Amino acid sequence: MRNISMITLALAGTLALSACQKPFGGDVRRADTSVNAIDGTGLSDIMLNAADPNESVSYFLRATNENPDRLDLQRGLAKSLLRANQPDAAAAAWEKVVAHKDAGMDDRVDYADALIRTGDWKAAEAQLDSVPPTHETYKRYRLEAMVADSHQDWRKADSFYQTAAGLTTRPAGVLNNWGYSKLTRGEYAGAEKLFAQAVTYDPGLFTAKNNLVLARGAQGKYDLPVMDMTQTERAQLLYTLGLAAVKAGDVSIGKGLIREAIDTHPQHFEAAVRSLRALETNVSNG
Q1: What is the mean pLDDT of the chain?
Q2: Which UniProt keywords apply (predicted)?
Q3: Cβ atoms within 10 A of the Cβ of 110, count?
Q4: pTM (2 decimals)?
């Protein structure tokens, strides 16, 4: 729990300045091609939301070097580093952001997020504690729930997860996290319910589907639930269910499910084949 492709941006344009017309006798100033001018085109938003993460990092590094006092560019760098899977560098960038005189509460929440990704739960909790209770956002409560989970304070975790789910129109991710929290506690029926809700909100969230199967397998339910799935997903879920059955001691059922996974997969399912061979070898040697 403690979780497009390269776009080539061609900026082609010609800024036509009428050098001949000087109605007030003033000089026509040279066009400003710095980040300040380019930002008017929304380039920063494009780089942050659409560009390749590493390309985005390079852009914001250049931009912050040119304009070291601009908070929006510092934020862009911190977000880009996180997208580029550089949590330590992102945390350092967010630390600089929150030190800015114009930083807000959302910045502290984002800093806490980066700290959690580095595994520094204590520092993340300190940042969240510095955010007033009146700052009620989805991300703040999702992170609060994760911190509560780290302390195994299940009552607080449940409360925060519930609040976070109510503050977003796309709760699949937080419902999946909440379900995983319950799964680790051994509350399998509650976890199953939350994973099923997550899949309802986002039928393409395979992680929730896989977790749903794990929760069912932990209860001895060795059939797949009714939900949308591709043939490959079905094979992978059958494999997960088979492993869950083996772990529970229902080896024969598990082997049957793994065989079904191999037969279902549209291609060669190497992981399942290896597991089945290992199981059959253990049985023959036993």
Answers
A1: 87
A2: Lipoprotein
A3: 25
A4: 0.80
